[in-house]
């Protein structure tokens, strides 16, 4: 049995489990004797952000999927889906997903900014 800290709320169990799993992998092949996860709201929030960032960095390239629907062309219901890329964050979107009409689509020389880019 491994001793460990406990969450202080009813919503952070996933954060604790993920952090304990990470600690176990980092110690492998040794088995940790205890796990300490700082349980303050500030620390749990930071852990969530760090985990999300790490998962996203390890996931498939954002260039392969629409940042709105998560699908590539082959999975998108529109056979000849048009794509647009944000000038700032470089994410790609199906124009249909962001409800951009052909008349609203800028030409290749005009930068376009998504709602995620803060422009």
Counting structural domains, the number is 2
Query: Quick one: how many beta strands?
Result: 4
- CATH H-level superfamily of the largest domain: Zinc/RING finger domain, C3HC4 (zinc finger)
Based on the structure, what is the oligomeric state of the protein chains? single chain
Q: How many helical elements?
A: 2
Organism: Ameca splendens
Protein name: PHD-type domain-containing protein
InterPro entries: Znf_FYVE_PHD (IPR011011), Znf_PHD (IPR001965), Znf_PHD-finger (IPR019787), Znf_RING/FYVE/PHD (IPR013083)
Pfam families: PHD
Descriptive overview:
- This protein is of the alpha+beta class and 119 residues long.
- It folds into two domains: 3-58, no CATH class; 60-119, Herpes Virus-1.
- Helix content is 28%, strand content 8%.
- It has helices spanning 13-27, 41-58; strands at 3-4, 34-35, 83-85, 92-94.
- Strand 3 (83-85) and strand 4 (92-94) form a beta hairpin.
- The termini are far apart.
Show the helix and strand layout:
Blueprint (H helix, E strand, L loop, with lengths): L2 E2 L8 H15 L6 E2 L5 H18 L24 E3 L6 E3 L25
Parallel strand pairs: 1-2
Antiparallel strand pairs: 3-4
List keywords for this structure.
119 residues, alpha+beta, Herpes Virus-1, two-stranded antiparallel ribbon, 2 helices
Task: Provide a compact summary of the structure.
By secondary structure, the chain is of the alpha+beta class. The protein is built from 2 helices and 4 strands; from the N terminus they run βαβαββ.
């Amino acid at each position: 049995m491994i001793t460990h800290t406990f969450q202080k709320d009813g919503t952070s169990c996933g954060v604790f489990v993920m952090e304990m799993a990470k600690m176990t992998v980092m110690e492998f092949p040794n088995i940790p004797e205890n796990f300490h996860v700082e349980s303050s709201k500030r620390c749990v929030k930071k852990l969530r952000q760090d985990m999300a960032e790490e998962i996203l960095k390890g996931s498939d390239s954002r260039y392969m999927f629409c940042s709105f629907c998560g699908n590539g062309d082959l999975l998108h219901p529109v056979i000849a889906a048009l794509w647009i890329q944000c000038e700032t964050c470089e994410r790609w979107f199906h124009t249909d997903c962001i409800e951009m009409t052909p008349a609203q689509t800028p030409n290749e020389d005009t930068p376009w900014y998504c709602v995620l880019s803060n422009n």
